[in-house]
Amino acid sequence: MRREWEEAHEVTEELVEGPPSRRANATFTASPDGNHIWAIGGEFFSDDGKAHFFSDVFRYSPEKDEWRKFVSPTCPGPRSAHAVVATPAGGGKLFLFGGEFSSLYQNSFHHYRDFWCFDITTQSWDRIDTKVRPAARSGHRMAIWKHYIVLFGGFYDPGYTTNYLNDLWVFDLQEYKWRQIVMKDNERKPSPRSGFSFLPTPEGIILHGGYCKEYIKGKRPVGVMLDDTWFLKMSLNPEADRKADSPLMVKWERRKRPSTAFAPSLRSGCTMALWAAKSMGIMFGGVTDEDKHEETLESVFHNDLFGYQIGGNGRWVSMLLKRPKREKWRKKRVATNVPIVVQKVEREGSDCEGDGGEDGDDDEGDGASQITLRVEEPHPKSEVDPEDPVLTTPMPRYNAMVAVLRNTLYIYGGIFERGTKEYTLDDFYALQLDKMDRYICLKRSDVVIPEEGEEESSSDEDDGDNDDDEDDGGDNEDEDDKEDREDREDWDEDTVFSPQQVPVEDEVEVEVEELEEDDLRVKATQFLGVSKDTSRSPEDVISTPLPGETLAVFYARSRDHWTQKAFGASDNRGKLLRRDGFALAEERYSTLSVPWSLAYVMADVGCFHCHRI
């Protein structure tokens, strides 16, 4: 019997070349010892319409940049959308519950309700069978609190409708028993959902966001993206008789949405990973779906990064890459002397001394002052800094598999859509969260995603970039250009972040005639000030350039805002939508840049008083 058990639990370990094959809805779990990441299961839908489900187990070792695969005769069946949680007990264990499986041609569909334990030290699986356990489901989440595994939500699809769940279960790791926590009817609790974030804290568990569908009789189901945040407050019940009462005292508390401009936009497909060292949840990417028509679903994909500080009442932070100071970049910028003629405006009680000039006099006279500004020419587009960390950002996606190991975020795969086709990605990235300097691509994607309207887009780019190249392209594509395009296919935003070159004449005269005093004061407050008035809205703050901010930096800081603006005003999607968003940002920047300069000049000649920042 011992020999039979050993044969059934014999583990085969194999060193593999790289990350798992293309797949989605697998689990990506940080090892309790902080040395490895475990990837289990997943699904892949091939171009021929076949559904492939996996049961393999992979381990990634960051120190060696090494992937290993473990195969055992006794293991959970192939599945996706399951839940895995790690505990350091007994040298480290992974607990897996539920998930879903489909036949090759999706003729049959199955939800699991089995419960498994993976021993990290021996790499072997053991099934845990109990009489009482949660119902079969997918898309649920689990978290560890003390010696309890907490399970919430998910969905069950019998084939004709999708039932979303909001039941709460706990598994006692000391007694190896499941127990359902039933809330009273008058107690508040989260609505049914799947695909949410579930983060443990010393006092309980944070739940954020998720996805569900609304079913209205006579209408097709409508997907609903959720952005509410709940806190499951947990404590041990010291007076509980374990045979009669629950050993836990739990209560759901809904957290108020933080009034901050740094909260992510409404989205789904973006489960947070816990950065334990900073008590923060890390969210990457996601998708925003909008049902504008009965037959179509329009989607915007994201590749931004957010952090949720789980302490106190919770707070969102936008995690942007740090741009290094580059003296070399600044030295390359060319300064041009630009004379600007300013027509003074006479006002009572002012310190301005002038005759006001004569109407229609375009020449410099008693009523005009000419001063010279040194204007730095923008960097040509061809000289975009190749070391710009923004260019290392992974392409937009949803359902990316993320895990934080110590202070490093790891991102694997995900799904991107172009038109009606889904592309399952297989790239692998790392980002040091304590440095936020750049994304490191550990494995580039082998998936080829065609450009949306590739021929038209390329011609539009050539027109919009103001390139001085005389190469028309023709029917033959330059090999270097082809390689550059392939290298950039994971981030289409390089054209957006490049500063647009605006030719500056050696001698430029700008005349400002008959400006009213009130208008000048308004312009001074608006353009010099990024006012400190607390009544300014977050939208006003994010959409106003800061003093000395270039167009590229301004757009990088406010990209999400302009994308959402373009999303509501245009039918374009994908790269065209980002281009529309950049056009809005450029228009906003250009309308403010000239008044900025004029306000400074007019303040210098003493026509009105304004506050400089």
TrEMBL record:
Residues 351-366, 449-495 have a biased composition (Acidic residues). Pfam families: DUF4110 (PF13422), Kelch_KLHDC2_KLHL20_DRC7 (PF24681). Residues 538-591 form the DUF4110 domain. Residues 1-23, 345-394, 447-506 are annotated as: Disordered. InterPro entries: DUF4110 (IPR025183), Kelch-typ_b-propeller (IPR015915), Kelch_domain_protein (IPR052588). Residues 1-12, 374-384 have a biased composition (Basic and acidic residues). This is Galactose oxidase. It comes from Thelephora terrestris.
